[in-house]
Amino acid sequence: MTAHINAEIGDFAETVLMPGDPLRAKFIADTYLQDVREVTNVRNMLGFTGTYKGMPLSVMGHGMGMPSISIYAHELIHEYGVKKLMRIGSCGAVCEELKLLDLVVATGASCSSSINRERFSGYDFAAVPDFALLKACADTAEKLKLSPAFGNILSDDLFYGSSPALLPAMQKMNILAVEMEAAALFAIAAEARVQALCVLTVSDHLITSEQATSEQRQTSFNQMMELALETAFEVSK
Question: Catalytic site residue 204?
Answer without folding.
Answer: yes
